[in-house]
Amino acid sequence: MTKQGKIKTILISQNKPEPGKKSIFDDLSTKYKIKIDYRSFIQVEPVHGREVRKNKVNILNHTAVIFNSKNAVDNFFRVVEELRVELPQDMKYFCVTEGIGLYIQKYIFLRKRKVFSPKLNTEADFLNLLLAHKTEKYLFPCSDIRKATILDFCAKNKINIVESCMYKTVSADLSDLEDVFYDAIVFFSPADIKSLFDNFPDFKQNNTRLAAIGESTQLALIEHQLVCDIQAPTKENPSIVKALEAYIKEVNA
Q1: Residues ≥6 apart with Cβ < 8 Å to 8
Q2: Are the C-beta atoms of residues 114 and 93 closer than 8 Å to each other?
Q3: Whole-structure pTM over 0.85, yes or no?
């Protein structure tokens, strides 16, 4: 059952886009005259290169690196610099999305390296990409909080992969939001919801609409006895923007 009240304000639990860069939510804000604020619920803490080495991870033992986020890219190359590792010219980089593949240009010259990303930008397409290159020795730099999909897939298909925790995801300080209320909040990961309750243990949903991306995020809401009003992706709404728009059309009519 849809909650009562129009959606006039939305909080996106991510950082505000950099100046000059467009957000996927901009058109939604303009079209429906909705105030959209941004605030990351989580922050990243680096794991020092010494700790990576202590865990017996040797970057040069691998022929390819898997990147599932820009944070993974940043922290991998930070560790490379801290450990003074000279990456070989033939090292390959497998990126979950094309955007991450382009982001690598911040650290390397693409014409001199081999960068792979799925054409369809889907998880299934990326896993098939790994399967097509199953003889590589993969290093997976990741956070202490990460989905098991890639590792499970590699184990099932006997693909050589080693994960290395190079950064940690921790809750941000949201104390300044204590007396601020939104008609809807958009969550992107279970870590966002953990941060919500780390900051506000007595949080009550009341009439706030909660949107969640992905099954694990939706389950995290349910585990905290909250109602997930807006879900994505679904067959009808393959993106969170589509899901929000469908909901807004219904309640703001």
Answers
A1: 34, 35, 183
A2: yes
A3: no
Amino acid identity, position 50: R
CA distance linking residue 200 with residue 192, whole number of Å: 12
CATH number of 9-41+173-248: 3.40.50.10090
DSSP for residue 16:
P
**Which of 115, 139, 132 is closest to 63 using CA atoms?**
139
User: Rounded to the nearest 10 degrees, how much is the dihedral formed by the CA atoms of 118, 123, 128, 130?
Assistant: 80
Per-residue pLDDT tens digits for 200-231: 999 999 999 999 998 889 999 999 999 999 99
Fold category of 45-170 in CATH? Rossmann fold (3.40.50)
Residues 125-135: tens digit of each pLDDT:
999 999 999 99
Q: Burial level of 236, CB count in 10 A (0-12/13-18/19+)?
A: exposed
Q: In this structure, what token pair is assigned to residue 142?
A: 């990741």
